[in-house]
Amino acid sequence: xxxxxxxxxxxxxxxxxxxxxxxxxxxxxxxxxxxxxxxxxxxxxxxxxxxxxxxxxxxxxxxxxxxxxxxxxxxxxxxxxxxxxxxxxxxxxxxxxxxxxxxxxxxxxxxxxxxxxxxxxxxxxxxxxxxx
Length: 132
Fold this sequence. Notes:
HB-CoA_thioesterase_AS, hydrolase, Acyl-CoA thioesterase, fatty acyl-CoA hydrolase activity
C-alpha cells in the first residue's frame, strides 16, 4: 500500500469549509501520480519515452465522513488488478483512523497520440506486479 499525505487548503473546500466532493477525486489522482513517482516513473517521461498516457476509465466513490479546511489527511492507494492495458486501484482517504472517502478506480493505458488502448510499458508492469 502506498500512502500520501494531503493537507486540506481553503481552495479545496466549499462555503461551509468542507472538502468539495470532486476534490477527493483530485486527491486520489495526486496519490496515484506520487505512487508512480516513488517507483521512478514520471508521467511526462512516460508520454515522451513510451508514448503512453493514463486515463480514468471508471470511478466508484463513497463519501463517508466530511473532511474540513486545514485538516491533515492520508490517501492510501493499492493496486487491486493489473491487466495488459489497465490498472484498478482501491483508494481511501482518512483523517487519523476515520475513513472520509473510499474509491475504486480503473485506469486505462492509452497511446499518447491516437488515444487508443496500448499495453502498459513492460518495465512499469513488472514493477507494479513486484510491489503490489
